[in-house]
Design a protein that fits this description.
alpha+beta; seven-stranded mixed β-sheet; four-stranded mixed β-sheet; 12 helices
């Protein structure tokens, strides 16, 4: 049976620096020279500092889903997706019954995804799947808000831009395998502390193998090794290299390759999409809180535009940051690009207008702090996390993840089942690192499979380790029998 599909990035998507994990399998071998370079002055996750003045300087807020090796490493609070109040431009309006209507349709979409997969049918958009299941929000603003909350909030793109088959595969391989619970992580050490902890098992303070604040400009590769040239004129020559750039960076052409990547590789890179996910934080005077702090989420149905400042989340709540006065709103993709292109004051005024429509203009004061990131403009990210458009296949994805000679690739985007998730980056970095360690010890190069000629569907038997798929079919979709 289908578990609830609350559709929230709480379970997703701030992907760790895969390079740390890829270095670990070779770290114990003193004969192996390793180098990790990063554009920033620290080892990082995509994290953000909350707009709260009284917290400790190193406190951060971040979000992730459950994963066995990471779950116990951070302080967290349970996100209750039933704790939601709904609004339109006139104030509180109860349209929560539409949530049940959506989830009934999603159950059909999920089962149909199983039929698509097991019967080798053509994939389609998640929008088509939802429409065929009877969910058609049309111009109904409340239904559009529910549609956004249930889908865009999870994948950072609307259902029109996402594969039905692999949206379901991606969801089920994490939440049917691990847990349907999802937790909001807030940890005073900063969520990147566990990455620093892992790095500390093999990197020393000021370790020369870790080059921070270093920008890669060019990667050249041949049958004998890989040369990495940096903007500062320095370079490194190695027998093998692992490229952990985000999909957004690879698609931006910020890095040149010599020779040019083969056409099958370029097609693999350009086939997939990079979503952008923006959280906009406001802090209000703690003695002037105007929202009901017994709720965690506040869903807004804008009368004119789908996805216009649609979901607010309170951090001033028991188990989170009570007394902080912090609330934040999430926008994605096209709306993210709008707020990224305008100055903070315009965005703040727009958000305040929505809040005053929801809670009354007389109740909403000016915030005492305001901030948001601009992920698609960050040169080391160019977006937040990857997604699979309609009609994509495992063969297409394998071309994204496959090596080109001695140059290997890893990151959340190269994970066939966990793309977009923190644990996707973890698993891919570890797998490629172990592969390189084996190559160094055995000195026999083996090519990962790639496909010069692509097919329009993914056969059930292609869900295997050769194509980067590590799980039994049990976790894929409702339509599979047990493995």
């Amino acid at each position: 049976m289908k578990t609830k599909f609350p559709g929230s990035s709480e379970r997703r998507r701030r992907c760790a620096h895969t390079g740390i994990y890829s270095m670990m399998p070779t770290a114990a071998d003193p004969a192996v020279a390793r180098m990790l370079r990063a554009i920033n002055t620290y080892v990082h996750l995509r994290i953000f500092r909350p707009a709260r003045q009284e917290v400790q300087p190193d406190q951060y807020v971040c979000q992730t889903g459950p994963f066995s090796e990471l779950y116990g490493l951070t302080e967290r609070s349970y996100s209750d997706y039933d704790s939601i109040e709904t609004f339109n431009e006139t104030g509180t309006v109860d349209f929560t019954s539409l949530l049940d209507e959506y989830e009934d349709a999603y159950a059909t979409l999920e089962q149909d995804a199983g039929y698509i997969l097991t019967q080798n049918l053509q994939d389609r958009s998640a929008r088509a799947g939802l429409s065929l299941a009877g969910w058609k929000p049309g111009k109904n603003a409340a239904a559009q808000a529910v549609d956004w909350w249930e889908f865009d909030f999870e994948y950072s793109v609307p259902p029109e831009q996402s594969s039905q088959e692999f949206a379901v595969v991606n969801y089920n391989t994490t939440f049917y395998q691990w847990s349907n619970e999802n937790n909001f992580v807030l940890d005073e050490r900063g969520f990147n502390s566990f990455i620093k902890g892992e790095a500390g098992t093999f990197l020393r303070d000021q370790d020369p193998r870790l080059l921070l604040n270093t920008i890669v400009a060019n990667i050249s590769y041949d049958d004998s090794g890989v040369t990495i040239r940096n903007e500062d004129g320095s370079c490194v020559r190695a027998d093998y290299a692992i490229c952990t750039f985000s999909l957004g960076v690879l698609q931006s052409d910020a890095i040149t390759f010599e020779p040019e990547l083969p056409s099958w590789k370029q097609t693999g890179i350009e086939t997939f999409s990079m979503g952008t996910y923006t959280k906009i934080f406001l802090q209000f005077p703690p003695d002037q809180i105007f929202w009901n702090t017994s709720y965690q989420f506040f869903l807004y149905a804008d009368p004119k535009e789908r996805g216009y400042y649609p979901i607010f989340q309170s951090l001033d709540a028991e188990g989170f940051l009570p007394g902080s006065g912090i609330i934040f709103v999430t926008v994605v993709q096209s709306q993210s690009y709008v707020v990224e292109s305008q100055d903070d004051q315009i965005t703040k005024d727009q958000v305040l207008t929505v809040l005053r429509n929801m809670f009354g203009p007389e109740n909403v004061p000016e915030p005492i702090a305001f901030m948001y990131p601009r992920w698609s403009l960050e040169p080391w990210a160019y977006g937040s996390y990857s997604n699979w458009p309609p009609g994509t296949t495992l063969e297409m994805h394998q071309n994204l993840r496959a090596n080109v000679g001695r140059l290997y690739f890893a990151g959340e985007a190269t994970s066939a089942q966990y793309f977009g998730f923190l644990h996707g980056a973890w698993v891919e970095g570890q797998a490629v690192g172990e592969k390189i360690a084996g190559l160094i010890k055995r000195s026999n190069q083996t090519e990962e499979v790639h496909y010069e000629n692509l097919h329009g569907t993914t056969l059930e038997e292609e869900y295997n380790i050769t194509n980067g798929f590590l799980l039994e079919s049990t976790f894929l979709t409702y339509g599979f029998e047990s493995g």
